[in-house]
Design a protein that fits this description.
Hydantoin permease, 26 helices, transmembrane
Length: 545
Amino acid sequence: MNFARERLHTVAREVKAKSTSLEAWKLPKNTSSLAPDYVWTNADQDPVPPEKQTWTAWSFAGYWFSDLFNVTGWQIASSTILNGLGTTDAILIALLAGFCNAVPTVLNGAIGSKYHIPFPVAIRSSFGYWFSYFAVVSRCILALFWFSLQGYSGCSSIEAIIVAIWPSFASLPNNLPESAGITTKTMVCYLIYNIFQFPLLLIPTHKLQWLFLAKAILVPPMVLGMTIWTCLRAGGSIEIFQVQPTVFGTDRVWLWLGTLTSVTGGYSTIAVNIPDFSRFSKSQGAQWIQLPLIPFLKVFVSLFGIICTGASIHIYGQYVWDPLKIVSSWGTTPGGRFLAFVCAVIWLIAQVCTNISANSISFANDMTTLFPKWFNIRRGVVFASLVGAWGLVPWKINKAAGSLLSFMSGYAIILGPFAGIMVADYYLVRRRELDVIELYDSRGKYRYNKFGVNWRAFLVFFSVFIPLVPGLARVVSPSNVSIDIGLRHLYSISWLFGFITSLVSYFLLMKIFPAKSTMARSQSSIEGVEDAISQTIVGDDKEKA
């Protein structure tokens, strides 16, 4: 009883302090941090200690089941077919895009699995201490934006769940003004979605593997069941596998390459920020399962999407891309409504897991680096759930801001150069050897110069990025921007161009103009890191929020 009373008084004092003083929100500087005294950092930036290195190969498998088994993954291949390519094209694109995602993901993931450091720290070796913040801010913006929009798309799952229980909800009258940009029904669904998602956001990263494992167990049987049902209702038709392309010649080639880039680019963020997850790896080899698994799962999910979309025309008289629309059509009988409820709940879990794995953790790690006095990972995800979910007003972005959506989709072209430079720096330049203690020192060797910028990375990035800007401008405003056909074609292969060109260019520049002072790695550094890792307590669940 005394303990409970004491705890209650402690909480009350903390609440009072944080409501009256901004200083009370400052996080303590961790004494075991690798950073020197003049650099403020917190425990979530430090290398992960052994007791929290819990991710095995199965954990990474669960992660990718979580990331790829979602509504978007279901729709990609079928939309490829409906855009003019054939079934064989769609499957080959999914397979090749899987390898284009897997190779840089595994290569950059090795940084985290060996040194147990997050992406914002890892990229300092190639970009320089202060220029790395440009990469962190860029990814932070993308993560928050897509966290917001992916959360809004989760409304469909909630609506399907509620309609399965109360069919009358489908005709709920709208009491919001047109200027709100959202209906009463959708607002209710969005509120419930965020209430459901919020506690899952608070799960520490090293424990997320269990959430991903739950999704990996639940989603595939559900997807298989939906596929079998649609095939049986359609009479076993396999016409979708016989679809031939309707675009030919060079137009088909560029449509093929553009689609490949689009499918690859959709998962390009993880190729950059994979150290945020691989840092929790139990062994260096655990994360290599991603190399065969990503292409396999991309094709696997795409096949289900192709089959169900192809069968849907025989059931509904039109192609139905969205699996939740198929689920919603089952509500004519009590048994159908029960199955619709179960499937919609599993799709909801799939959507939330994807939002966590692809967006919230990335954003939280970035905020921890940008504002270490005020943010740890827990505070980062809380901030995302407030500002991303409500501050960005995603329903208005989704409804009216087509040019903004196009810009943010195209903005992902920056990730190709980021990934390419990281791979070249770690494997070709440094031969997998980093001085981790120096990565935490703003005056250390990875500062490069007084500006904290590795000019080679700066030059390579903008040399690759600038030629792609006209293509981005045309995508944002096609009616007002006219560019040469060559620049259009270049933009259609933007991710592959950015990754490969930056990788080769950075390696050559570092070979011709080596930054010798950043290459040495002392034994004291190695021992210091090992000692720091053994003492560090990561702040996911230890630091006070």
